[in-house]
Amino acid sequence: MAMLTDEMLLESYHMATELQLDMEFIALLLAEIHKRNLEINLTIVH
């Protein structure tokens, strides 16, 4: 995870959730996002 830039990490998280990948993988990404104190911008599409 350390090799990912913050932008790449956030993009990976958004893509993983969009594609409904394994929840354990998403949880790993989310843990790293919290570790780096990054904010997740949630966009709701109607």
From TrEMBL:
SUPFAM superfamilies: Sporulation inhibitor Sda. Pfam families: Sda. InterPro entries: Sda, Sda_sf. This is Sporulation histidine kinase inhibitor Sda. The lineage of its organism: Bacteria, Bacillati, Bacillota, Bacilli, Bacillales.
